[in-house]
Every structure is written in C-alpha cells, then in structure tokens.
Amino acid sequence: MRGFGLFLLASAPVVFGADRTTVTKYIPAPTGPWTETLAINLDYPYGAQPADPVAFSAADGLAFQAGDVLTIQYDSGLWCAGTYVSPTTCVDGNGYRNYAPIDDHPLGTSAVYAPSKYMGASAYPVYLMQLVGTFADARGQIVGVPFKVGNGPINVTIPAGAVRLQLGANLYDYTSARDYYTVLKASVSGTTLKSAGTMAHLAVGGSWKTTIVLQNSSARQAQAQLNFFDDGGNAVAVPVSFPPALPSSAAAMSTVSRTMAAGAALTIVCGGVEGQAQLTGWSQLITDGSVSGFAIFGSKSGTWDQEAVVPLETRNANSYILWFDTTGSMVVGVAVANTTAQPVTVDATIRDEGGQVVGTGQVPLAAQGHSAFDLAARMPQAAQRRGTVEFHTAATGQITVLGFRFNPLAFTTIPVMTK
Q1: Partners of 191 in beta bridges
Q2: Could you tell me if 322 and 316 are in contact, meaning their C-beta atoms sit under 8 angstroms apart?
Q3: Of 73, 217, 269, 364, which has the highest C-beta tally within 10 A?
C-alpha cells in the first residue's frame, strides 16, 4: 500500500459563527505596540526596550480584510509600574491621567513618552501606560500611525497592507514595569473566517507529495488560511513551497495565510524533498470569501510517478459511507478526522454488497484529531470482500472521510457518500 499511513487531512474543526468572531488575549505591562528591534520601525523608537507586541491576525480566525472594522475592548486587569507597587500605581487601559499631556507631540515640549509622541494630535490626550495599538504589514512595518485604545470599545478600520493588529502599553521606560505587574485582558472582534470544506488526505514525506490548489472564485479579494494539525490535534509544521520555487526551498509552516485577489489561484506544494521525514495529521481551510480548491496526491516509486486529484469536501456531515473492494491484492486505506474541538468516537458499520451487516468497529479520535489506516487490517471483517463501510459519530459531532484504493502498481481515490 506504499505508506498509506502517511496522511494529512483538511477539515474545519472550529465553528467561528455566522459573521463575526471575538478573540481575547492578555497583554503584559512591558509589551510595546510594535517590534522596536526591526530597523524598519526606527522612526518610532522606544526608551527602554519593551517586549514584542501582542498580535491579532488571521491566525486567530479574524478575516483581516482591508476596509473591515475591528472592535477593540479592554476587558479587565491592571498594569503596574515600578518596584514598589501600591493600588495607586496600578492602572487600567486608560493609563495615568496625570501624565502624557496634550502637547506631548513631535512639535511639543513635554517629556517624551513613546509611542504617544508619534500619534496624531487628534488622538490626544494619550496617557502614560494607556493601551494603544498599531497595524503592521507582513514584515512588521507599521501601517498608518499608532492610535490609543484605552478602555474602549473603539472601532478601527483595517488599512490596506495590514496583516495584523498589535497592542501594547504607551510607556517611556518599560523596565519599570517588569518588576511587578498584572496583565490587561483585551478582546478584538471582527469579521470571521469560515470553513471552506475538508480534504481527507494530505500525504507528506517518504514517497508522497501533495499539491494543494486554492481558487478565489468571487469578484472580491478574500483571505484564505490553511492550518496543519497532527494526529493528536496539535499544530504541526509542514514543509511548504510555492511554485515556481522548488520543494528544496520549502519552509516549515503550521499555517499558510494569504490574501487572494479576485479570480486568483494559489498553489501550495507540501513535501517533495527526497529523504524528508513522514508526517501524519490533517489540515483545515478557512476563508472569509469564496475560496475552494482541490489536492493533487503524488507518489513516486523509482521512475514510476502517479497522481490522483480530489476536491475539497464541503458537506460537513457526521456520517459518511465508503465503498470498498479488498479482494485479491487490492488494499483500501481510510483517513478519518474529527473536525470539532471535542474528542469523539467514530463507529464503523461494515456491510456486504447485499447490504447485510458483517462487522463493526470503532475509531477513537482526539479533539481535532486524525487517524489513517488499512481498512482490512484495522477491521478484519472487511478483508477479501466488497461492500460498504459507514463511519458515523454523534449528531453533535462532525467528521470527514476519504478512501484510497491500491493495487500493487497504482492507486486512486475513493469518494464518499453522506447518509
């Protein structure tokens, strides 16, 4: 069967909601609102060097489209400064009201508090240790200018070129906040990325290479994100390259996120490097637009190259029926993934060609977990037989399934039906 256990599955384990999602994170006091160590941001220097900002992006399920509106809200927590801390030196997202006066601006004469010094006059007053934000592009360069958040909520529009929102403290000496502090909790709400369907295998390593092709069929740009997970549901880095770059230039990524222009296509090559270690798991495609696609599974044995194509699965069901034929030298492989955030047990019912039940089995899966196996080896009742096997989980569950059919020389995919 030539490495059938090597599969990575595309699916949708997270239900984000119909239109918007809310992401909550904690923001320590020594955190600045941009990465000061990048030379491209030296127009916005700090005093004492802070920690990197806390970022919100498509990796959190936010669509992050230019022109979309984000709502930023301080939820709870306090920032404290200095070694000797008292209740009067701990502040919320609005900061110290008696600092950073209105003339603290490049043309002003007051003490320099970064980053408020670099914010537009319309943003004032901006106070010391107030919660502030920036937008940044893929290189970390600031897009636009810093802005105050405070206790919010405030609505901000994502500018062109921005791929993440960054939150941090307005402070001139971040060292003073490192001795003792609590954290702020802040929430960001925006347009959600939604499931675009499932792909029941992505074979990576050994003799296998999988090329994923995504297509934006709409008349507007769309955000597309592909996430990779291992059998246990944990994020896993997959070697990825983008033609015309060769697979030898692949970089390990657990998430591929791209803004796709209207009508655009994106080709993602996973694997293809000789001697590469095998990976087993699954992946999900989510988008805020009309992005779909397919996978091209490639296997190479000596000079013999084969390919099979399968489209994304979009039915998001809890029950699938797979035809199988394990007679003679035929082998059927199955991949099953749990596309929810809760563990599930998948029940299997094996029937012969006449519809009679001849056996049962179970496939336990972790939250967002995956399993790939030889059907007859896992469930001997299916050996040397033609028939169907139904994979079913509870009504509250959601799975995705795909079959592969192998003879000694070749393979093809087997589509599944929903019940």
Answers
A1: 20
A2: no
A3: 269
Give DSSP secondary structure letters for 260-316. Answer: E-TT-EEEEEEE--TTPPPB-EEEEEEESSSEEEEEEEEEEETTEEEEEEEEPB---
Residue that is written with structure tokens 């107030």 in the block: 130
Amino acid identity, residue 278?
A: Q
pTM score over 0.85: no
Please report, for residues 79, 132, 215, the alpha-carbon distance to residue 187 in angstroms, rounded to integers and kept in the order given: 16, 13, 32
SS3 at position 28 = strand
Q: Output the six-digit token pair for 205.
A: 């390593």
Structure tokens, 303: 């000079």
Among 25, 20, 35, 37, residue whose Cα is nearest residue 190 = 20
CA–CA separation, 186 and 27 (whole Å) = 7
CA–CA gap between residue 294 and residue 151 (Å, rounded)? 45
Point out the least confidently predicted range of 2-11, 121-130, 240-249. Answer: 2-11
d(CA 113, CA 118): 9
Helix (H, G, I), strand (E, B) or coil at 124: coil
Closest among 213, 208, 217 to 226, alpha carbons compared: 213
* Bridge partner list, 187: 24, 73
Report how far residue 187's alpha carbon sits from residue 192's, in angstroms, rounded to the nearest whole number.
14
CB distance 192 to 61 below 8 Å = yes
Q: What is the CATH number of domain 20-191?
A: 2.60.120.430
Kindly report, as residue ranges, where domains of CATH 2.60.120.430 are found in the chain.
20-191
Residue 126 amino acid letter: V
List all residues 6 or more positions away from 328 whose beta carbon is below 8 Å from its beta carbon.
none
84's CB contacts (< 8 A; 6+ apart) are none
Give 179's pLDDT tier (boundaries 50, 70, 90). low
| Closest to 28 measured CA to CA, from 242, 180, 158 | 180
pLDDT tens digits along 237-273: 899 999 999 988 899 998 898 889 999 999 999 988 7
* Sequence letter at residue 307: E
Q: Is the peptide bond before 153 cis (omega within 30 degrees of 0)?
A: yes
Judge contact between 36 and 147, C-beta under 8 A.
no
The pair phi, psi for residue 84, each rounded to 5°, is -100, 105
CA–CA gap between residue 78 and residue 164 (Å, rounded): 24
Q: In the structure encoding, which two tokens stand for residue 224, read together?
A: 């597309």
Q: Residue type at 291?
A: V
